[in-house]
Hints:
This protein has six helices and two strands. The mean pLDDT is 91. It is mainly α. It has a single domain, classed as Sufe protein. Chain: A (Alpha-Beta Complex). A hairpin with a 5-residue loop joins strand 1 and strand 2 (67-73). It is globular.
Amino acid sequence: MSNLLTAEQLVADFSLLETWEDRYAYLLELGRDLAPLSAAEHNDETHVKGCVSQVWLVTERDEGGALKFRGDSDSLIVRGLIAILLVLFSGRPGKEILETDPAPVLDKLGLIQHLTPQRANGFAAMIRRIKAEAAAASNPG
Length: 141
């Protein structure tokens, strides 16, 4: 997945796809393009609780203080969902992440209503984890 993909480009890409099947195929493509984590990064510390699939999120800070996220899952569709979250949140300062409501973009993508309740709960767990990491980075005391 290109690190240059923006939320606006993501929305534009999804808007070109007329059917849920097309959007699902694109989500799977995003998942396939997501760089995997190393075996060592699949650990209890990076594991996201509350997801039916196995999900791991790694948080790093760049020189400017922005948070960079990387993630992986044993499910290709969840890898696609992780890729979307990385577009929305990765590379931004913690305060900005905390102020970002992903709902408007997610609504425009038209995916959430097609997720099973378990996947939607897992997706929400990933967002909570990212927000918690941002809160911890914003209050380093």
